[in-house]
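Recall that a protein's primary structure is simply its ordered list of amino acids. Everything else, from secondary elements to tertiary packing, is in principle encoded there. The following example makes that idea concrete.
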Amino acid sequence: MSLVTGPGRAQVADDSLPDELQLVVEKHVKYIQSLDKRKDELEYWLTEHLRLNGVYWGLTALHLLGHPNALPRDETIDFVLSCQHNNGGFGPAPGHDAHMLYTVSAVQILVTVDALDELDKRGKTGREGVGKYIARLQNQEDGSFAGDEWGETDTRFLFGAFNALSLLRLLSYIDVTKAVSYVHACANFDGGYGVSPGAESHAGQIFVCVGALAIAGRLDLVDKDRLGSWLSERQLNNGGLNGRPEKLEDVCYSWWVMSSLAMIGKLDWIDKEKLSNFILQCQDPELGGIADRPGDAVDVFHTVFGIAGLSLIGFPGLKPVDPV
């Protein structure tokens, strides 16, 4: 799966748009299917470090669009397993170092295509080896998680550990209580969460922190009204959402913001009609794909999160998505 942008662009927002915008489902399916056929483009190889993530994004978008078999299952499984290391972790492509983020994508893909048994049969380690790799990345003193052996910590990695281990039914491999305490220490006065204790609130970090607490069954620690207020303020006049104050709107926050609101039961604190119109304006109606905002080049990252955002607000024709 290629992370190359384009070739299409989202339509430019203007007053001549039809009253009822449509989601061009078939165009999006063909766009995603085309991404691994662009190997003659330099950008295809420059984005190799995101290949496994790209497969997950494309596969998830296809499932939400109601086309779960649009990518070849066997080839998908083979590629995922080719990215595994002897330590249990996964890199983004063969020959790249293992990292938490790629390991999470690998687990998510295998679960989505119902292939965890293939991991046990043909992987360099079975699911238990993957669980042990993730568990080794936890800091036993404060409960945080590193992304890899080099030690960078980020609440994204903590959520990734919770997500993957919950899918593998191996949460017992880590100290959940300490991890929850670490997330709670990342809470800010505005109700949001940052990348680490004391860091600025950001919608992406809020998603991972609230998601981790949801998996742990500790949403009682969230100041839901205060957080809901902060998240609802992310909607701009054009209907799009930003990730923090004074920033531009971006389709990807249709997921980070809306999923967080869904987890705390505040999904109705956003104008859903304005948001859906914004997302639909970010489509390329001719070649498929969704961009970050109208007029920009499309890519698979914004395509999946735009579609997931529409699914969260109940857009007709889409499969429901779990906000966690």
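The chain is about 45% helix and 0% strand. The longest strand covers residues 290-291.
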